[in-house]
Amino acid sequence: MFNRLIAATDLSPASFAVVSCLAGLKAYGAKHCLLLQCLSFQEAASTALAYHTEPLEGMLIEQKTILEKEGFTVEARTVVGAPRQEVVRIAAEEDTP
């Protein structure tokens, strides 16, 4: 099957629900998860100017912890760009389905 996956998150309540359901993918061989947060250029600029990255980092770490408790090896990463394009680019670069 597959052992690596990308889970794109926007840190919304809905994304927490999705992250909580990913354990079902372990039955298909999933072991490693790249938890990917994509910020638009506007979001990145406003976050940088506000100096308040702790809440975002805290929520990303919370989602990472949920996945680790389910037995995944997790890398959490934040990138700047359009989510659809960044997910496709990173998946191709890292040979992740």
Task: Tell me what the structure shows.
This protein starts with a strand and ends with a helix. By secondary structure, the protein is an alpha/beta fold. Helix 1 links the parallel strand 1 (4-9) and strand 2 (32-39). Helix content is 47%, strand content 23%. It has one domain (4-93): Rossmann fold, CATH 3.40.50.620. Strands 1-2-3 form a 3-stranded parallel beta sheet, sandwiched between helices. The model has no long low-confidence stretch (mean pLDDT 85). The protein is globular.
Question: Care to give the gist of this entry?
Answer:
It contains 4 helices and 3 strands. It is α/β, with parallel strands linked by helices and 97 residues long. Strands 1-2-3 form a 3-stranded parallel sheet, sandwiched between helices.
Question: Which SSEs are present, and which pair or pack?
Answer:
Layout: E1 4-9, H1 13-21, E2 32-39, H2 41-50, H3 54-69, E3 73-80, H4 83-93
Parallel strand pairs: 1-2, 2-3
Strand content: 15-25%
Biggest β-sheet description = 3 strands, parallel
CATH topology: Rossmann fold
The gyration radius over C-alpha positions equals 14 Å
First CA to last CA: what distance? 10 Å
Oligomer: single chain
- Compute the average pLDDT: 85
Regions with pLDDT < 50 over 5+ consecutive residues?
none
Structural class: alpha/beta
Coarse morphology? globular
Question: What is the CATH level 1 assignment?
Answer: Alpha Beta
Order of SSEs: EHEHHEH
Tally of helical segments: 4
**How much helix is in the residues?**
40-55%
Count of strand segments: 3
CATH architecture: 3-Layer(aba) Sandwich
Number of self-contained structural domains? 1
- CATH homologous superfamily placement: HUPs
Strand order of the largest sheet: 1-2-3
